[in-house]
Design brief:
The complex is a heterodimer. By secondary structure, chain A is of the alpha+beta class. Chain A contains four helices and six strands, in the order βααααβββββ. In chain B, strands 1, 2, 3, 4, 5 and 6 form a six-stranded antiparallel sheet that branches. The radius of gyration of chain B is 17 Å and the shape is elongated. The chains are: A alpha+beta, B alpha+beta.
Amino acid sequence: MSPTFSELSAGQEIGSRTLEVSRTDLVKYAGASGDFNPIHWNEAFATGVELPGVIAHGMFTMGAVVQLVTDWAGDPAAVMDFQTRFTKPVVVTDTTGTADAGATIEVTGTIGKLDAEARTARVDLTVTAAGQKVLMKAQAVVRVS
Amino acid sequence: MTINPDLQGRSYPAAEVYDVGREKIREFARAVKATHPAHFDVDAATALGHPDLVAPPTFAIIIAQRADAQLIEDPEAGIDFTRVVHADQRFTHHRPIFAGDRLVAELHVDGVRAMGGGAMLTTRSEIFALDAAGGREQVTTTTSSILVRGEGQ
């Protein structure tokens, strides 16, 4: 069910989601994306370069949180522009072999701005992990019919 | 190791062609926990009017980071890959990326700025799809800033 432009208004919430992240997810993302920087999978290496631990790829977080927008839009091709700043790392603890998440990311989407001429909606995402905002200015511009 | 300030304004021409495969779109979509059928099921994608599977909105990072690697691995650039932190990222889609696309990326170094003992580098990849006639169509512009942390940063 795709949104209808005339029914949207700035400030409207499009939904929210909780994403559980494990070390396995980071290994999968490394393989799928080709980003094998060891800070995303090796604890000793990550702490050796003064990071608090293994951290998620910023691009994993960015890629995962936009699903809220594509599902709301009804077509992933409707996302015309998507940007973010990475402000805090998402530290993923090693919970291998257990059912526990290594990190939990919360995402909420709100209509930030509507462009009636272009028939686009800007969706602003609020993304937090461990109580801190991990993305800033996470904005997706979506074509709406 | 310090970043070479002369990188500013440098361009790296389109190198190898990236062939967008259906299984790669599916694999990347799973890796970002995407479930939309247009990433997985050709019939679902064509029902939405698309020629083939639609890549997720951040899929172009694969091509952009391959282009970035030319710069990061350039010994003249002076970048320590292990001290690189991603600061910001943007994708502007002129059209969606579909399975079957043959893509090339042109890399531009738009900014080099010293920050403490490190540096902030802003790069832009212009991604084009090649057609059978040898023409190219602009598909996606990606811009990214990376912070190369100095010692103690």
